[in-house]
């Protein structure tokens, strides 16, 4: 097992014309941990995600991913489908991006494209119905069923994904991301729009993904109850730079973070903290 | 009544051919959102390849008709599929992320290229072939002496179409490739993030569409006994109309639209005038689109935010 962090950003900068959305950002996400990326709106969190998953080509900097066996990938150089295929990074978006016209089960089957692609020998063996392909198809179905059960949607397996309730669609997205067999799971505001009970279930699901499946998680989230409960480490961004990094306890008491969220300056925040203590 | 039955048979056969071509239009539209105007010419190419491979087989002395038909079918599907793949690779893929009209213009250009390439390499004259599949059944003989006939070639066309449609429906709904195609149709970015090679999936769509067009080309050759370099234009426009009529993007819609256009054309020619059959087909298209803008089986387009 490699001792390097699963994901390391080194001096990542992303410029859109004159606007510097991310400015020389460096942080790392540890293996088999949940790392949260937080910060006020417009801090550049989603831009970081988009750089990691290849939507934006960073102006400069390196995003290095290291697998358990020590294989390294520089994410900014990978072609779109190789992000999942080679680097094994899965992500979700702020808005739901399921395939609405396909069933819940089919959504999870698409995510196992690569395993099936290998087994189907570039489609030909699959069309001929070679046994190894049937086994692969069956194990893909088993895996999909496992995740449907895990997120409590087994009875909705054959319903179109677009017809599920909002909270169900959110969980199905996470299940779909997990079906790709990711080493790193990037979640962009998974708790957005969930009620308190659904948020608690989400926290439980993410903790189990980390401990039972050994998947590292990088998460953007505004729901502090979720962030504080499940994160091993928190990175705080504001105006494209990192302003703090540490355990949930460190972050909670950091005057810089409070100042950034309240939009006040640091001394005022420190004074509030002291008064509370 | 006999006359009606005969026209129904003729219309269904013509409609099958249109439907096979229309599927290529609708599939490509569904996945990349462009109208592949060169698709009619791919159909024409399919007809020519069927003709050439038929002549080659006969000249090497093969005489068993079913064997000839099968080989011609496979050869023309394979080579035309290669054409489809190449067209997408050189004319559309480089323009994939360009402005919306660019691939369409490129498609029109590709259509000219194929038409003129065939004219130059094969000559401008109509190429006839002797009837390959002959014979048929007399279904009913009326008192007035009118005979309802079902020829063997009509049976071949309809059965081939049904078998191919069955295979194709299975491919799209049950296989990995079909799931990938549907996923790319709904959200290419997300499909890529899940590890689907979008470029390859789009290539496969063109390959399948071209193979079906080749079958249509071969059926046309067998049914009408001739091909020429310009036949892709009118057939392409008709099949495109069929795809729009059925609801573009919908696969059963394409087949239904093809049958509808085939029937309208045949009945109009039979009961009114042959000269105005195209006018009739396109007028019905206009009427349907006024009252059902998304076609017979199309889903309303939901604007993405």
TrEMBL record, chain A:
Pfam families: ABC_tran (PF00005), BCA_ABC_TP_C (PF12399). It comes from the Bacteria. InterPro entries: AAA+_ATPase, ABC_AA/LPS_Transport, ABC_transporter-like_ATP-bd, ABC_transporter-like_CS, BCA_ABC_TP_C, P-loop_NTPase. Residues 7-264 form the ABC transporter domain. Coiled coil: none annotated. Keywords: Amino-acid transport, ATP-binding, Nucleotide-binding, Transport. This is ABC transporter ATP-binding protein.
From TrEMBL, chain B:
It holds the Pfam family BPD_transp_2. This is Branched-chain amino acid ABC transporter permease. InterPro entries: ABC_transp_permease (IPR001851), BCAA_transport_permease (IPR052157). Belongs to the binding-protein-dependent transport system permease family. LivHM subfamily. Its main location: membrane. The chain crosses the membrane at residues 12-35, 42-62, 68-87, 99-118, 153-172, 202-223, 280-298. The lineage of its organism: Bacteria, Pseudomonadati, Pseudomonadota, Alphaproteobacteria, Hyphomicrobiales. Keywords: Amino-acid transport, Cell inner membrane, Cell membrane, Membrane, Transmembrane, Transmembrane helix, Transport. CDD domains: TM_PBP1_LivH_like (cd06582).
């Amino acid at each position: 097992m490699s001792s390097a962090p699963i994901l390391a950003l080194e001096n990542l900068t992303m410029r859109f014309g004159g606007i510097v959305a991310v400015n020389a950002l460096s942080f790392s996400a540890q293996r088999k941990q949940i790392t949260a990326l937080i910060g006020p709106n417009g801090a550049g969190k989603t831009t970081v995600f988009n750089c990691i998953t290849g939507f934006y080509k960073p102006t400069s900097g390196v995003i290095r991913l290291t697998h358990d066996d020590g294989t390294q990938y520089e994410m900014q150089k990978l072609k779109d489908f190789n992000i999942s295929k080679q680097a094994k990074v899965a992500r979700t978006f702020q808005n739901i991006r399921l395939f609405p016209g396909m069933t819940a089960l089919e959504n999870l089957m698409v995510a196992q494209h690569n395993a099936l692609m290998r087994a189907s020998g570039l489609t030909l063996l699959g069309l001929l119905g070679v046994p190894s392909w049937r086994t692969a198809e069956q194990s893909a179905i088993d895996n999909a069923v496992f995740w449907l059960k895990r997120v409590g949607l087994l009875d909705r397996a054959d319903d179109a994904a677009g017809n599920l309730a909002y909270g169900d669609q959110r969980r199905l997205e996470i299940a779909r991301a997990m079906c790709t067999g990711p080493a790193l799971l990037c979640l962009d505001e998974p708790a957005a729009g969930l009620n308190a009970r659904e948020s608690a279930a989400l926290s439980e699901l993410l903790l189990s993904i980390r401990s039972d499946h050994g998947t590292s998680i990088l998460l953007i989230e505004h729901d502090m109850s979720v962030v504080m409960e499940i994160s091993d480490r928190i990175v705080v961004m504001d105006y494209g730079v990192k302003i703090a990094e540490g355990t949930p306890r460190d972050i909670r008491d950091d005057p810089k973070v409070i100042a950034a969220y309240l939009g006040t300056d640091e001394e005022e925040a420190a004074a509030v903290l002291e008064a509370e203590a | 009544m006999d006359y009606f039955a005969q026209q129904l048979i003729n219309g269904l056969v013509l409609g099958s051919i249109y439907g096979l071509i229309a599927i290529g239009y609708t599939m490509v539209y569904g996945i990349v959102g462009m109208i592949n105007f060169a698709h009619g010419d791919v159909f024409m190419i399919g007809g020519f390849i069927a003709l050439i491979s038929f002549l080659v087989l006969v000249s090497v002395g093969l005489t068993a008709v079913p064997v000839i038909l099968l080989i011609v079918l496979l050869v023309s599907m394979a080579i035309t599929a290669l054409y489809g793949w190449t067209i997408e690779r050189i004319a559309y893929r480089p323009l994939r992320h360009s402005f919306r009209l660019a691939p369409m213009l490129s498609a029109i250009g590709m259509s000219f290229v194929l038409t003129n390439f065939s004219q130059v390499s094969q000559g401008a004259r109509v190429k006839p072939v002797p009837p390959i599949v002959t014979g048929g059944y007399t279904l009913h003989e009326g008192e007035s002496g009118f005979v309802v006939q079902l020829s063997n070639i009509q049976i071949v066309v309809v059965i081939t179409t049904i078998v191919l449609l069955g295979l194709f429906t299975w491919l799209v709904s049950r296989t990995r490739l079909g799931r990938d195609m549907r996923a790319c149709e709904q959200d290419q970015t997300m499909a890529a993030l899940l590890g689907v090679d979008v470029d390859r999936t789009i290539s496969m769509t063109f390959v399948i569409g071209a193979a079906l067009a080749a079958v249509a080309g071969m059926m046309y050759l067998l049914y009408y006994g001739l091909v020429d370099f310009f036949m892709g234009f009118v057939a392409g426009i008709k099949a495109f109309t069929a795809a729009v009529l059925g609801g573009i993007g919908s696969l059963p819609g394409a087949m239904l639209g093809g049958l509808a256009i085939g029937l309208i054309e045949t009945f109009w020619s039979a009961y009114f005038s042959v000269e105005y059959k195209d006018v009739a087909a396109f007028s019905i298209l206009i009427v349907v689109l006024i009252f059902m803008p998304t076609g017979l089986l199309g889903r309303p387009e939901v604007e993405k935010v």
